[in-house]
Specification:
The protein has 226 residues and is an alpha/beta fold. The chain is built from eight helices and twelve strands. The strands form three sheets. It has a five-stranded parallel beta sheet with strand order 2-1-3-4-5, sandwiched between helices. Strands 6-7-8-9 form a four-stranded antiparallel beta sheet, with no helix packed on it. The longest helix has 15 residues.
Length: 226
C-alpha cells in the first residue's frame, strides 16, 4: 500500500482527499503546516508528498527545498492557487515532480499521483558516475562535483541530464524532453526547458556562456557532446 503525505492547511480539501485516496487503496497522512509536515516526512517516509504552496509559516516552496535537501527521489506534487509559469518553474527548480492548480478534482489529482508514482518507481539503474570535463556527475546520489565543490541535481535536472548522456551526439528536441521528463501530466513552455538547461550548464560547464558539452541546436533543442 502506497503512503501519501498531504501538507495542506485547508481542512475541507484534506478531508476530501483523505476519503478519495483511501478509497483508491492509499494510506494517507496529513499535516496542516510545513512545521508539522516535515517531521512527519522524516518519520513516516511516504511514497509521495502532496504539498500546498500557500501555507502559513514556512511556505510550500521552502518546504519543498528542505525535503530535497535530505531526499532527492520521493515524488512531490505541488498544490496551489497560483498558475503563473514563473511559480511552476520555481517549484520544478526546487525539485517538484508535478504541479496541480486549484480548483481541481480529486479524480484528477489521483490520476496525477498514479502517473508520477509509475514514472518514478522503475527499477533503480546500476550505479553510474561519469566525468564531463572537470565535473564529476553521480547519477546515483543526484550530485555534481566540480572544482572541489559539490552541488545537488533536482529530479528534473537529473532526468534531463540523464536523457542527454544516454543519447550522446544526438539532437534532442524540446518536445522530446517534455515527453520523456514531464510525461502527459504537465506541458511546460520551451522557456522552462531552456531555463533548466541554463542551470545544468552552470553546474557542469567551465564557461556556461560558451558551453562545450550541452550545445544548443537553434530552432530544435540541444545536443550533448561528450
Amino acid at each position: 500500500m502506497k503512503k501519501i503525505l498531504i501538507i495542506e492547511d485547508d481542512l475541507t480539501i484534506v478531508k476530501g482527499l483523505e476519503t478519495a485516496f483511501k478509497f483508491h487503496g492509499f494510506e494517507v497522512l496529513a499535516a496542516d503546516s510545513s512545521e508539522k509536515g516535515l517531521p512527519l516526512f522524516q518519520q513516516e517516509k511516504p511514497d509521495l508528498v502532496i504539498l500546498d504552496i500557500m501555507l502559513p509559516g514556512l511556505d510550500g516552496f521552502e518546504a519543498c527545498k528542505k525535503i530535497r535537501e535530505q531526499d532527492q527521489q520521493t515524488p512531490i506534487i505541488m498544490l496551489t492557487a497560483k498558475s503563473q509559469e514563473s511559480d511552476k518553474l520555481l517549484g520544478f527548480e526546487l525539485g517538484a515532480d508535478d504541479y496541480v492548480t486549484k480548483p481541481f478534482s480529486a479524480k484528477e489529482l489521483i490520476a496525477r499521483v498514479k502517473a508520477v508514482l509509475k514514472r518514478t518507481s522503475h527499477v533503480p539503474a546500476q550505479k553510474q558516475t561519469i566525468i564531463i570535463g572537470s565535473a564529476v556527475v553521480n547519477f546515483d546520489n543526484f550530485t555534481i562535483a566540480k572544482g572541489g565543490e559539490e552541488c545537488s541535481l533536482s529530479p528534473k535536472e537529473h532526468a534531463i541530464l540523464k536523457l542527454f548522456v544516454d543519447h550522446p551526439d544526438t539532437v534532442i528536441s524540446r518536445s522530446r524532453i517534455i515527453d520523456e521528463v514531464w510525461g502527459d501530466e504537465y506541458f511546460p513552455s520551451p522557456k522552462t526547458i531552456d531555463n533548466f538547461v541554463v542551470k545544468l550548464r552552470g553546474k557542469i560547464e567551465d564557461n556556461p556562456k560558451k558551453p562545450r558539452y550541452i550545445l544548443t541546436v537553434h530552432g530544435v533543442g540541444y545536443k550533448f557532446k561528450p
